[in-house]
Amino acid sequence: MVNIGFVRRILNQSQMMLFFITLCVTVVILAHMYLQSHNRPKPLSDTVIFKKTSVLAMEHISSAPERLKDLIAKSAPKKNRSALPLCPEQPSHLVGKMNIKPTVTLEEVTKENNLKNISFGGRYSPQNCNGRERTAIIIPYRDRKEHLEICVRHLHAVLQRQELEYGIYVVEMALPTQFNRGLLANAGVRTVREIYDYTCFIIHDVDMLMTDDRNLYRCGNQPVHFLTLSTKHGNNSISYADYYGAVVGFTSEQYQKCNGFSNLYFGWGGEDDDLGIRVQSAGMKFIRPKKEIGMYVALLHDGDVSNQRNPNRYVLLSQAKSRWMEEGVETVQFQRLALEYRKLYTWILIRVKEESIVRRYQQYLEDMTSRVPTILLSNVLPIEIVVAFSVNLLFTYVMMDIEQLY
Ligand code: UDH
Ligand code: NGS
């Protein structure tokens, strides 16, 4: 037991009060730090958990944590394709301009496209030739179910006409964290790299539909920005020359060379501009298709509650040049909660901890004067504040009681 009489002999009443209050605050802070260090995301390969739900190819999914590579080895298509020729440079079944409107419905897209020969998880290989590349379409996603169904169906139809070997991967971020498009792209790349030896990664918004299938989803000798116009940006030009949003494509080497996206943009805006700076800093340059074939239809949607404008995006952007090598696809931290092979795509659910991610780059965030209150608040949970206040009140009360005994 603490000898209060001894403490009382060396401290007066107000000093004692102060002593106990500081003691309480210290205990709470230490407890918080302890909990944080124990919640830190573990290395990628240790966190694969397969969730049992009714999905296609259920028999391939184990409920026990299992190495993704072992699982894929068991489920990979066995067909010998080595005798097939390489697909032609110019695919012969393209239709060119398609008549799609921003108001297109799921029924219309489904009726228009009779999808065949898609393997579980949304993978496809041309029937009579070998694709020139192995392409992973990665869709950062949250809460846009109708758009997802439309987008995926449209993509399958177009990519099959383009004679690509591809897989579609939908990467979703569990709530309550603010949406982070760049981090989802990085998590997607890290995951699909384990699934198959993809040579080309295309990061694709869920609400963007290409309107001309001559816009081939192939990677080039430079990163590709596939969008030259969109219904969102008007008929004549995109927002600004250095706009690299919506749909971009990288070879595996190019993505590694610029270290992918930044992981630090939580909320809306800036991550695509940051990507542009990374590409340039890594000595590369985005290329675009011809203006007339790079037109996209943007599906209509309301603002998202969990993707508010990021107030720190300009500060982060101003540091992009000095930060790009330090954080990106190679350092992304996330926990994979589920991976399901669905009929038309593979669904990957991840969880991230905003505070532990940004804390690792504190030296950059220290410049963010506007963000300081948010950082402080996000590091101390409301429950901890309540506990600290209650404990302090209790001690004050007890001390006043003890004081009255003397
Ligand atoms: N996305 C989701 N769910 C979300 C937010 C974003 O799936 O809640 C994905 C989706 O792939 C989308 C992409 O991230 O296509 C880009 O997000 P967006 O469509 O919201 O971006 P856009 O530039 O936003 O189209 C325009 C609205 C800006 C409002 C900003 C304040 N909320
Ligand atoms: C810029 C954003 C980009 C965004 C672009 C187009 O202002 O992230 O608008 O938006 N950059 C910053 O906020 C720093 S759009 O017209 O598509 O809504 O992609």
Automatic annotation (TrEMBL):
Q: Does the keyword Transferase apply?
A: yes
UniProt GO BP = carbohydrate metabolic process
Q: Name one GO molecular function term.
A: galactosyltransferase activity
What top-level branch of life does the organism fall under?
Eukaryota
Residues annotated as domain Galactosyltransferase N-terminal: 87-219
* Cellular compartments per GO CC: Golgi apparatus; membrane
Xref: SUPFAM superfamilies: Nucleotide-diphospho-sugar transferases
Name the predominant localization: membrane
Instruction: From the Swiss-Prot or TrEMBL record, state where the protein is found.
Output: Membrane
Q: In which pathway does it act?
A: Protein modification; protein glycosylation
Instruction: Name the EC number(s).
Output: 2.4.1.-
InterPro entries of this UniProt entry?
Answer: Galactosyl_T, Galactosyl_T_C, Galactosyl_T_N, Nucleotide-diphossugar_trans
| Keyword entries, A-Z | Glycoprotein, Glycosyltransferase, Membrane, Signal-anchor, Transferase, Transmembrane, Transmembrane helix
- Give the membrane topology: Single-pass type II membrane protein
Pfam families per the UniProt record, alphabetical? Glyco_transf_7C, Glyco_transf_7N
List, for all copies, the residue spans of the domain called Galactosyltransferase C-terminal: 237-301
Spans traversing the lipid bilayer: 16-35
As for family, the record states: Belongs to the glycosyltransferase 7 family.
Quote the function comment for this protein: Catalyses the transfer of galactose onto proteins or lipids.
What name does this protein carry? Beta-1,4-galactosyltransferase
Natural source organism:
Potamilus streckersoni
